[in-house]
Design a protein that fits this description.
By secondary structure, this protein is of the alpha+beta class. It has a domain of 125 residues: Gcn5-related N-acetyltransferase (GNAT) (Aminopeptidase). It has 5 helices and 8 strands, in the order E-E-H-H-H-E-E-E-H-E-H-E-E. It has an 8-stranded mixed β-sheet, with helices on both faces. Strand 5, helix 4 and strand 6 form a beta-alpha-beta unit. The longest helix has 14 residues. Bound molecules: coenzyme A. Coenzyme A (COA) binds next to helix 2, strand 5, helix 4 and helix 5. The site of coenzyme A (COA) has 21 residues, from helix 2, strand 5, helix 4 and helix 5.
């Protein structure tokens, strides 16, 4: 996600760092999360790697340590992302979700992945529903978008299930191995 466009959120406007959704806690990643996050990503590599450009190679501990430090240092990060882990009642990592201020006013984008062992339970749908509501509560946001490749039917199903409208399908750079090169742009307006 690039940040060439102007920000939708004024400096200091931030979503909360902790969000409780039923039995799940969605919270800003903390530095100590690097090991459980590494383990979740490593276990889910075959599930996530086909679809997400940041996971072109198997994860490394160092890379996950650095990511945790970056998120701990600034909220949002320099690329204007608010990155959350999704945790189960026992504290285990169920997945991740992010709010990205990269589309230009008045829109923000939501991105996500789910631990392969926790798919099919609405972990991501329920988390994205909560983050969508939170995004609309932020001054400056009148539109929330979810972008996915046309071949990524499970990601598209999340957006559809939440009531996002498919605004368009158009050619998009192939950034991950399973992508078709056709992007779906799902939109929800205030
Ligand atoms: C995309 C991805 C996050 C979707 O995962 P998922 O498990 O299908 O999504 P959810 O966690 O929302 O679970 C939805 C399923 O739980 C079911 N479900 C159960 N309880 C539910 C509840 N309370 N609310 C919503 N759905 C519920 C849904 O009916 C759905 O079932 P289905 O898979 O049989 O259709 C996951 O496949 C993934 O991590 N993919 C790799 C990374 C990726 O592609 N990220 C997005 C890039 S654009």
């Amino acid at each position: 996600m690039d940040v060439e466009l102007p920000a939708a959120l004024a400096p200091g406007v931030c979503p909360p760092q902790r969000i409780v959704v039923e039995d799940m806690l969605i919270r800003r990643w903390e530095p100590e999360d690097f090991m459980p996050r590494f383990e979740a990503i490593a276990a889910s590599y075959e599930h996530i790697h086909p679809w997400m450009a940041w996971l072109a190679e198997r994860p490394t501990l160092d890379q996950q340590r650095v990511f945790g430090e970056i998120v701990a240092e600034s909220w949002p990060t320099a690329d204007r992302a608010f990155n959350y882990g999704i945790f189960g009642g026992d504290g285990s990592v169920l997945g991740a979700i992010g709010l990205h201020d990269c589309l230009g006013p008045p829109a923000v984008e939501i991105g996500y992945w789910c631990h392969v062992e926790h798919t099919g339970r609405g972990v991501v749908t329920r988390s994205a529903a909560a983050l969508t509501r939170i995004a609309f509560a932020l001054p400056g946001v009148d539109r929330v978008e979810i972008h996915c490749d046309e071949a990524n039917v499970r990601s598209a199903a999340v957006a559809r299930r939440l009531g996002y409208r498919l605004d368009r399908i158009e050619p998009r750079e192939k950034r991950a191995p399973a992508e078709s090169g056709r992007g779906m742009y799902w939109v929800m307006e205030r």
